[in-house]
Amino acid sequence: MTDARLADLPTPCLLLDEAKMKCNINRLAKRADSFGVLLRPHLKTTKSVEAARYVLKDGNGPATVSTLAEAEAFAAVGINDIVYGVGIGLNKLDRVLDLHRAGCRLVVLLDSLVQAQAVAAASKAAEIAIPAMIEIDSDGHRSGLAPSDPELIKIGRTLHEDGAELHGVLCHAGDSYFAVGREAQSIYAEVERLAVVNSADALRAAGLPCPVVSVGSTPTAHAAKNLTGVTEMRAGVYVFFDLVMAGIEVCDVNDIALSVLTTVIGHQVKQGWALIDAGWMAMSRDRGTANQTVDQGYGLVCDEAGQLLVDLVVIQANQEHGIIAVRPGSGRSMPDLVLGTRLRILPNHACATAAQHQRYHVLPEHSDAPLMIWDRFAGW
Amino acid sequence: MTDARLADLPTPCLLLDEAKMKCNINRLAKRADSFGVLLRPHLKTTKSVEAARYVLKDGNGPATVSTLAEAEAFAAVGINDIVYGVGIGLNKLDRVLDLHRAGCRLVVLLDSLVQAQAVAAASKAAEIAIPAMIEIDSDGHRSGLAPSDPELIKIGRTLHEDGAELHGVLCHAGDSYFAVGREAQSIYAEVERLAVVNSADALRAAGLPCPVVSVGSTPTAHAAKNLTGVTEMRAGVYVFFDLVMAGIEVCDVNDIALSVLTTVIGHQVKQGWALIDAGWMAMSRDRGTANQTVDQGYGLVCDEAGQLLVDLVVIQANQEHGIIAVRPGSGRSMPDLVLGTRLRILPNHACATAAQHQRYHVLPEHSDAPLMIWDRFAGW
């Protein structure tokens, strides 16, 4: 299959543009370097060992994951410095300990005394000090303590004194995904920074260690102006980018490295529709641009070579059907997309679209190199 | 793993209630029998050989699929009477022929002369008369010819005379998913019936065969009052049911056989939130109830035993976080869902939620029987 050419690929399938991906990876790596902070990429977007090798330029870490299944898959190939960036479930501590026994330093995340007590107790029982970070909330997005919450010190002390390891504090400015433009996003970045830096200061003032101060989201990582006091930043979707990120001006549409290859399978001429074999099963149900300034439907349409077909949008999707039409109000007419025409669809949300597929078909940076197949993994 | 108990399952994971599934299957099977029409279940919802064995009570068919990957997986276990219910791509005919050579009678679907010519040419070249159905559109939902379209006869004649097999006509009243209640849905069913029956009559009047007249969607299959002239009906999501189907009164919430098992991993007390480890990766991004009378968010909440917790809704989802809150305006207060509490979430759309998972954990009808694991397959 490594000798397959783009023209031979079955449809729908997932395409990845190696050159664009490398460019996106380098852009944020340089930015992190310029601030002197560690970049800890989030591997939940790619879920692929081969892609992780591009993202983790220094080899076996540092990395972030969103599931223990990711941690286990990456640990199995030697990646050994991982933050599990979702609040730890009390039913997951056995698997965390197994990862440590297998040589992977997995850091867990928590925001309550009950979790801290459970992590400390599990650490003590196993004689493995599980490293834990305290999650801080800067924007009311979902989980985490307010920086001023008095529980912070109690949690820190429990971890530090009862058998676990107080590794640091972590914040994710999830609401930055709704801020348009670098100036607006830089405010989220500063609020995110202050939340963790103030929390770290509070822990240290209480005599507790706080070696790691971690911030991150793709928008804030690209917009931050000041990272004083921060030791590392995390981001995930920047590796591929997508229409949601383009819609808030973190990237350009042409930076998007991920697309779905599809074939025209029908028409409704009176409606001005072309039907394609990429429905929501191939694109995901993510409609992340629905509330942005420009709604991109289920994706923007490119020709097979990746050139954008301006104002063509996947306006609707069923399980295995997509409907392409001219953007309402654009005044353009529908091009002649004859049956069998092959197109690429740019996704709203790369994490969601990639998760609908079992593998990447990687278009090589050097056009004489063979197309590569990279498996993805899934599950929890 | 077959000795696992519900209480031991890792979270998030996909649960299937065997007793409810059997009840749903029997309900529609009886209905089809009462009309004297064949039921051709759509296996795109389940994508599981074990589930197919429950649905296909007569063994190896008849069945409907939405991808060639489904056809290939089911053909590999002997299921040999399959309609591929998505307009055939010109790039997929080799795989169709391979399925025939392997003993699976796969029927393709088309709505254009170009497709008919390609199917006829491929049939002639391979000396295998590919059976093809002409897709008819009754409601402007997506693909298919209007019943009165003069292309119908040309397409039928091309199939019949140039090497393929004219198998019949097929219609899917996709817009019936937006009709509430049996009376409204029965109108869609009648329009769907008339579309195919009139098309079949037109083909026969032109001297062409039309042995199969196929209708179907889960709402119309449950609501049709008259199926005169129809030979078979198709439906898929009825096997599991979901909140979208409950929202349009095709089923009751208590009929839903599919759910996602999850664990409470955090709280935001001031917001009235409980956080769970089922985000959109476990539930899918499907928000099919968003435009229904009652928006069910990312799903309704049950306790671990499956009892509905009234007015608790998954109001928001990130990749691996769900947020549970009391339904706005309900006046209820948030119950005390302590860390580690296990819950079940009922999905908006069973096809989409199931597709996020690699296997079913099947809760047996008889409580002393072991929990079963059924693998799902994916891809195209």
Biggest chain contact? A-B, 59 and 59 residues
Q: Please tally the helical runs of chain A, counting DSSP H or I stretches of 4 or more residues.
A: 11
Poorly predicted tracts of residues of chain A = none
General shape of chain A: elongated
**CATH top level label of the largest domain in chain A:** Alpha Beta
Structural class of chain A: alpha/beta
Rounded to the nearest angstrom, the radius of gyration of chain A is: 22 Å
Q: What do the pLDDT scores of chain A average to?
A: 97
- The domain count of chain A comes to 2
* CATH-assigned fold name of the largest domain in chain A: TIM Barrel
Q: Write down how many β-strands of chain A occur, each being a DSSP E stretch of 2 or more residues.
A: 17
* Terminal-residue CA separation of chain A: 28 Å
Report the CATH architecture of the largest domain in chain A: Alpha-Beta Barrel
Spatial order of the strands in the main sheet of chain A? 2-9-8-7-6-5-4-3
The fourth-level CATH homologous superfamily of the largest domain in chain A is Alanine racemase
Question: Sheet with the most strands of chain A?
Answer: 8 strands, parallel
What percent strand of chain A? 15-25%
Please write the string of helix (H) and strand (E) elements of chain A.
Answer: EHEHEHEHEHEHEHEHEHEEHEEEEHEE
Please estimate the helix content of chain A: 25-40%
By oligomeric state, this entry counts as homodimer
